[in-house]
Amino acid sequence: MQVFRSLDEIPAALGPTVAAIGNFDGVHRGHQAIIADVRARAAALQAASVAVTFDPHPVRLLRPEAAPRLITPLPERLDLLAATGLDATLVLPFTREFSQTPARDFAERVLARGLHAVEVHEGDSFRFGRGAEAGTPELVEFGKEMGFAVYGHRVLTVRGVPVSSSEVRRRIAAGEMGMARALLGRAFSVCSTQERGRGIGSRLLVPTINLAAYDELVPAHGVYVTRVRIGAGAAKRSFRAVTNCGVRPTFGVERFAIESYLLGWNPEADPVEITPETPVEVCFLQRLRDEQAFPSPEALKAQIMRDVAKAEHYHRLAERLG
Fold first, then answer.
1. Are residues 116 and 22 in the same domain?
2. Where does the record locate the signal sequence feature (predicted)?
3. Which of 122, 149, 147 is nearest to 135 (CA)?
């Protein structure tokens, strides 16, 4: 997938496009449904399929006090968009100046002249232009004048729940990983690098890996069944794991951390090279319990072993069911 970070980067060779517009935070099942339609229409019209998104999230600039923590920061969002089979994504820098663009100018400059769009697809709730002045009805009128058709997509419902980025965030923040997975179409994950811990895992003789500081969306404090992926490309390793999200109250730690115990991993017999730049992804599968303080490190270790047994059962069952 090609990635363009300004209109000037779009080559003439891209030709006519069928475009989807949105923030696409999470690239959830609703987004996936729109993109599937875009790809099908692009193939039928012999056009390129393109997503148009924004960075940073517009609310971070316009109302920073209300800005959501992201489900998928831009690098992960682009990876997920690429996995859908799109031909290209246009990432528009959302600056103060850009936020003052009138809706008509946006339609003409970005969609008609920049992308040579023949069709534009969006969610029914999408707003654009200075002060969010326009939505689907206005875009339909611009399209008639500028030569592109507009399709507004109704909200997808999964298990009776309307799929939206805000609903996905709410479920993740509540630790409802099963429902979050149903809405996303995959397990929620956090991607970062390793941070050297305080040696707690070593003192407990439990090999753990800690994620570096992460400022976007994380699940509710607690203990989770997870899968941890370390590295990239052909060198990527995948481990079944148990992960604690929280402040580790048994040891009086106040700083939030994501600490994972890799099941069945012996670092001496099976060393894994991890540098400060090595990507680490933690995929959250199921919540086991709340985070809690224990009277002693020994009591904590005993609970970790009980958590491990439950996690191993979960992984065995999941693998058996495919």
1. yes
2. none
3. 122
Read off the tokens for 22.
């949105």
* pLDDT tens sequence across 146-172: 999 999 999 999 999 999 999 999 999
Per the structure block, which two tokens stand in for 19? Answer: 């475009």
Which residues span the domain enclosing 9?
2-161
Tens-place pLDDT, residues 203-255:
444 578 899 888 999 999 999 999 999 998 888 999 999 999 998 665 556 68
> Half-sphere exposure of 1 toward its Cβ, with a 13 Å CA cutoff?
22
Same domain membership, residue 297 and residue 212: yes
The contacts of residue 274 (CB under 8 Å, 6+ apart) are 194, 209, 230, 280
- 222 is a domain residue: yes
**Could you tell me which residues come within 8 angstroms of residue 164 by beta carbon, excluding any fewer than 6 positions away?**
28, 30, 125, 155
Task: Please check whether residue 18 is in contact with residue 41, taking contact to mean a CB–CB distance below 8 angstroms.
Answer: yes
DSSP 233: G
